[in-house]
Specification:
The complex is a heterodimer of chains A (295) and B (280). Chain A has helices at 4-41, 57-64, 66-77, 81-96, 103-115, 118-128, 135-142, 157-182, 186-194, 199-226, 231-236, 249-258, 263-294. Chain A has 295 residues and is mostly helical. Among the domains of chain A are: 1-29; 73-249, MetI-like (MetI-like fold). The radius of gyration of chain A is 25 Å and the shape is flat. In chain B, 76% of the residues lie in helices and 0% in strands. The chains are: A mainly alpha (295), B mainly alpha (280).
Chain lengths: 295, 280
């Protein structure tokens, strides 16, 4: 048998040893690159030549860069899908929470788009949005509506992308809501019924407050994900859409960094995006703390 | 109307609405499959044909020579398997250490690692690219494999949560008996967390399989590209020739592996995703 202090020393060494890989990975692939992004954003880095320090010039240029403004506007505009998805998903989850036969099957079907490859899905939707022969316009045709050539028209390209992202993400949101709904004790509803509270009143005073934390979680994760939208844009509108009307921030960063080799300028945009996401995440952490005190 | 028959009616209406929704969710995917087995003339038929009269499976043979689909699958499998197998090992070992071993700085280091979750990939991708290009790894699979081998913070987080609820007594006894720390992990802890590890591994595998941004940055030669890039190139190349059946057949192939994994493990996957929201 070993002495306690000996045992503790050994445990300390192994403790550190076992966490060494993720710590190294963090330093090499997260911390160092982040620091370098900050530094690079203050230079005229082109990936090849010398990096000259130019202060905040890149950030100043962002203020007047119309393409960046467009990309930022498009990115935020496409987040309109978040509330739409939220409402639809909650309605579906409420329906699935009633113990109707076939619930498991519905859950699986609604979830299939979530696990599907985004590249394959984007290819499929570009075909579905085809102006002449696409599924969407043929469907609209039944109602006598003559749909546009969705992805080629600067007014319809963003709504088209929103519809697709709602479709893709619905199952995930629905699942989180369903889990939250199932954790609401039945007795709450029974008590409400005894008090004569109607379905809608019960929803407003029991269900909604109970699913509020998960709603918040969904909104935040969707903002974080939505602000990084790239694959759909790259595949469905590979030039950033008519008049750059579908380009996102990450799409613009990617173009600047890897097509134009304006690494410094692209880093400045990456820093802006990073700070935005950092703030959103921080708000979530704070709110989580608050709600766990309340509970 | 009595209370129960009214509930029954409501449930029937809701069932019908849910069924319509389910059709809307699945219709584009059926459309994709249906396009892939159509003759070119049927593709542009108005009104659309959902089930072609004589299905053409030929495109599923043609895709293998129309582009580097096979090497795409091979590359995706190499990346996803090596990252998830090695990365799951390093992640679960770290989760074990964070939850069951005592050492100074533990909590601080853990929160430092968690902060990585706040940092989006676009914020690190440019310096990472320059690092890997300095050592000549651009256009190889290494930049997509190596970072993952060091572990996955989401996985460490969930396994740690899971392990905290496992009682310490068994481990303490084995510690006093002089079992090595690695044996504590491999023979006592790991078997306990196997189901949680499996669910996390599957989710991670699907994430890597479907990844697009990192591969598009690093891989330029067609035979080095992952499956997702290969099908994106199919789309760019054959859409001009309007060979939609070919494009859709390749996309179906890209979708299939993960779809099968999902259908087999749907219960575990759905449960572990649902937990992530509740814990928020």
């Amino acid at each position: 048998m070993q002495t306690i202090s000996n045992l503790y020393r050994k445990e300390k060494i192994y403790g550190w040893l076992f966490i060494l890989p993720p710590v190294l990975g963090f330093l090499l692939f997260t911390l160092f690159p982040v620091a370098y992004s900050f530094y690079g954003s203050l230079t005229d880095w082109d990936g090849l030549g010398q990096m000259d320090f130019i202060g905040l010039s890149n950030f100043k240029e962002l203020l007047t860069d119309e393409l960046f403004h467009k990309a930022a506007f498009n990115t935020i505009f496409m987040m309109l899908g978040i509330p739409i998805g939220l409402i639809l998903a909650l309605l579906i989850a409420l329906g699935l929470n009633r113990g109707i036969p076939g619930t498991t099957t519905f859950r699986v079907i609604y979830y299939v788009p979530v696990i599907s490859s985004l590249a394959a899905i984007s290819i499929m939707w570009s075909w579905a949005y085809n102006g002449d022969y696409g599924l969407v316009n043929q469907f609209l045709d039944i109602f006598g509506i003559d749909g546009p050539n969705w992805l080629m028209n600067k007014y319809s390209v963003k709504p088209a992308l929103i519809l697709m992202t709602v479709w893709k993400g619905l199952g995930y949101t629905m699942l989180l809501y369903l889990a939250a709904l199932q954790s609401v004790p039945r007795s709450y509803y029974e008590a409400a019924e005894l008090d004569g509270a109607s379905g809608f009143k019960a929803f407003l005073h029991i269900t909604w407050p109970m699913v509020k934390p998960v709603t918040f979680f969904i909104v935040v994760t969707n903002i974080i994900g939505g602000s990084q939208i790239f694959t759909e844009i790259n595949i469905m509108t590979n030039t950033g859409g008519p008049e750059y009307s579908s380009a996102s921030v990450v799409f613009y960063i990617w173009q600047k960094a890897f097509d134009n080799f304006q690494m410094g300028y692209a880093s400045a945009m990456a820093v802006v995006l990073g700070i935005f996401i950092f703030i959103v995440t921080l708000i979530q952490f704070k709110m989580n703390e608050k709600s766990s005190y309340e509970a | 109307m009595s209370h129960s028959s009214r509930t029954k009616l409501t449930n029937t209406i809701i069932f019908i609405l849910l069924a319509i929704g389910a059709v809307a969710m699945i219709a584009p995917l059926i459309w994709m499959l249906s396009t892939s087995i159509k003759q070119k003339i049927d593709v542009f038929a108005l009104p659309p044909v959902w089930i072609p009269e004589n299905p053409q499976w030929g495109k599923y043979a043609e895709i293998w020579t129309a582009g580097p689909l096979l090497s795409g699958i091979k590359n995706s499998v190499i990346i996803a398997l090596s990252v998830t197998v090695v990365g799951t090992f390093t992640s679960s070992l770290a989760a074990f250490s964070f939850s069951k071993l005592k050492f100074p700085g533990k909590h601080m280091i853990f929160f430092l690692l968690l902060s990585a979750l706040m940092i989006p990939y676009p914020a690190v991708m440019i310096p990472q690219f320059m690092m890997f290009s300095k050592i000549g790894w651009v256009d190889t699979l290494l930049p997509l494999i190596v970072p993952g081998l060091f572990g996955n913070i989401v996985m460490i987080f969930f396994l740690r949560q899971y392990l905290i609820s496992v009682p310490d007594e068994v481990l303490e006894a084995a510690k006093i008996d002089g079992s090595s720390y690695f044996r504590l992990f491999s023979t006592i802890t790991f078997p306990l967390i196997k189901p949680a590890v499996a669910a996390q591994l599957i989710l991670w595998f699907m994430g890597i399989w479907n990844d697009y941004l990192a591969p598009i940055i690093y891989l330029t030669s067609p035979e080095k590209q992952t499956l997702q890039l290969v099908i994106a190139n199919f789309n760019a190349q054959y859409a001009i020739q309007t060979d939609y059946p070919l494009i859709m057949a390749a996309s179906v192939i890209a979708l299939l592996p993960v779809l099968i994994i999902f259908l087999v493990f749907q219960k575990q996957i759905i449960e572990s995703v649902a937990i992530s929201g509740v814990k928020g």
